[in-house]
Amino acid sequence: MVFHVEYPRIVPARKPPGHQPAAPRYTLRWHDPVDTLVSEYYGMQKVNPSWDEQQQFFQRVEASLAHPDGPAAHEIMRFTDEAGETNAVVVAYWLDATRHARWSAAADFPTWFAARERLSGDAGYWRETIAVPYDRHETIYSAPHYKIGFARTANSSIESMTTNGYFGAARDRIPVSAIDPLESPLRDAPPKPRSVEGRGRRLRVVTPLNMTALRSGQFWVGAGPEQLGDYHENLQPKLMRGMNFLLDHKGETGTLALRVMTNLDADGTERAETSVLAYFLSLAQLEDWSKSHETHLDIYRHAIAMNRQFKEKREVVTWHELFVMPEATSFEYVNCHGRTGVLPYFDLLEPATA
Amino acid sequence: MVFHVEYPRIVPARKPPGHQPAAPRYTLRWHDPVDTLVSEYYGMQKVNPSWDEQQQFFQRVEASLAHPDGPAAHEIMRFTDEAGETNAVVVAYWLDATRHARWSAAADFPTWFAARERLSGDAGYWRETIAVPYDRHETIYSAPHYKIGFARTANSSIESMTTNGYFGAARDRIPVSAIDPLESPLRDAPPKPRSVEGRGRRLRVVTPLNMTALRSGQFWVGAGPEQLGDYHENLQPKLMRGMNFLLDHKGETGTLALRVMTNLDADGTERAETSVLAYFLSLAQLEDWSKSHETHLDIYRHAIAMNRQFKEKREVVTWHELFVMPEATSFEYVNCHGRTGVLPYFDLLEPATA
Fold first, then answer.
1. Would you kindly state where each structural domain of chain A is located, as residue ranges?
2. Rounded distance, CA B179 to CA B303, Å?
3. Rounded to an integer, what distance in angstroms lies between the CA atom of residue A176 and that of residue A166?
4. Hey, is B73 helix, strand or coil?
C-alpha cells in the first residue's frame, strides 16, 4: 500500500489547469499508515567548542537514541548562529508519537537535559520538537535515489509526483490545506523580537498555531568537477543570498529563525551536505517570498535549469520537508543566549514546583 | 456531503463479526470538512459564591464570546468540586482552530483571565482547552432529536450508526484508532497525585499524550412522571454510584479528574440536564472500567432496558463526546486550590518574563 490522506476540497487548489511540471520531482510516502510525524532537534550551543566537546554531546545523545522507543532515523550537524556561537545539532525522527513520548519520559538524554546542572556552565542546550499530524506535512526531492531526513525512516519510498513546479505547490501537497487555509492567528499582529535573558534559565516558548517549520536540504557528495563547480559558483551563492535576505528581513518575511546547518561525518568532518532549518510565522509569508522575491526566483530558476541540462545525470540533490505546526510549547532553551531559535518572539514559560 | 475520516486499518476493530446493536444509537457528523475540534472550559471557583458573583462571571465570558472569532456554541453549568468549592463553568465549542486562536489572542475574556489581578482575591479561575484533530474524537447519542455539546455547532447532524452496543465501540468510532492503539506513554509509570500550592499562582499543566477527555451527558427536561421517576430512582443513582466509584479509585481506574456538572438556565436555575466532565490517563483504562466493573454494567444495562421498553417514546437522552488529546499545556489554573482539575498529577509550568 501507499498511505496518504486526502480531504474533499473546500479551499481551492493552486495548481493551474492542465499544469505539467517543468522538471520531475518526488515526494515521500510510507507503506504503512502514519498518524503523527515527530522531528526533534537537540542542540549544544557554545563559543568555539572543541571537537571533543561536540563529540561528547553527540555521543551522549546517540547513546540515548539506541533505546527500544528511540527514533527511526537521526543525523548530526553543526551551524554557527547569529550570535556567532557554534551549535552542535542532532535531529531525530519518529513515526510514532507514543514511542517518542515514552522515549522522552524514560531515556537518558531527556533526563540529562532536564537536570538542574544544565542551567550553569558555558554551554547552552536546546530542544525543538516538531510534532504534527500527517496531514500537516509535505516533502519534495529533486531525485528519488538519495534518502535523507524523514526519508530515512523504514517503510518509506520517494515517489514521483506532479504536484510541483508552480507557486502554491507546497501548500497543495499539505493534505489539510484542502480544508484549512492555515492562516496565522497573529497575521494582523505579528510579534516583534524583544531582548530575552536566556542564561541560567530553562525557558519554553509558546509557539503559535500554524507556525511553519522548513528543513530544506542540499546534497552534493560525489559530484564531479562540472556540477561541483556550478554548485559552488552558482547554486550555493544564490542560496546563501536568499537565506541572508530572509535573515535581514525577518519582520516582513515572517522569518523567526533560520540556521544553515552542515551534516557531519562521525569524526566531525563536514560533509558536502547542508540543510536550512527555518521557522516562519505562516506558510503564506514563506509563499510570498518564494513566488515574488528575486532571491528565491534565482535559486528556483537555477535549480530547474540544471535539472533540464543534466537530467538523470544531475549530481546535486535538493529537497525539503515542511510542517505546519499546532500551537505548541515544545521548544525549550536552557542556559542559551537570548537570540536562540524563536526565544525572542513569543510568550515564555518555565518549570514550576508543585 | 457527510464528512468523516477513515484510515486503512492496521489495528483490528473490536466489533464482533455480524454484530447487531441491541438499541439504536446515533453519532455526530458535519456537512463540511472539519480539521480540528476545540472545546474550552472556563471556570470560576469559590466557596459559596452568590448568584450575582456567578452571573457576573457568566456575563463576562458570554459578552466576550460575541466576537467575530467567537465559538460556534456554548453552555453554562455549575458543579461542586472535591474540595467543596462551587465552580461556575462555561464550555465553548469551535470547529476552527485559527478562529479559536485569534479569539484567544484578541477577545476581552482571555485578556482578563491573563491579568495579574486574577492571582489574588477569594476566587480562582481556570481554563481547560481540549483541541484535537477530527480523527481523535467520537460521539454517541441515545436519540437524534436533542442537540447538545458539539452537536449545537452549525452544519452538523445526529446520524444513525451501528458502531455501538459492544465493548470497544467507542474506540472503534475514533478514526485514528484504526492506525494507533492510543496508549498512554505513562502506562507503566502512572503519575501519583501530590500536594500542589495553587493559590496566588498561575500554573499550566503538561498533560500527557493520549490523555482522554470525556463529557458524558444526561437530559431529562420534559420527561413525564413514569420516566422521570425511573430516572431519579434508577438511572441517576446508578450513574452517581459509578462516578463515585471512579472518584474513590482514581489510581486504579486512571481517573485524573471528574466533575458532575449541571446545566443552568440564564437565571441560574438548574436544568434537568447534567454532564460529567472527566479526564482519564488513557482510553484503555476507561474501557477497562466500562467493560468489567459492575457500576458501569449497571448503568449500561439500565439504559438499554429503558430504550427497549420505551423505544422512540424514551424521554431521557444520554450522550457523550470523547477526545484523545495530543500532549498539551492548555490546562491553566489561576489562584485555584491544589486539587483543581489535573493539577495534582503532572509537571507544571508558569509564565516567565523575557
1. 25-349
2. 31
3. 19
4. strand
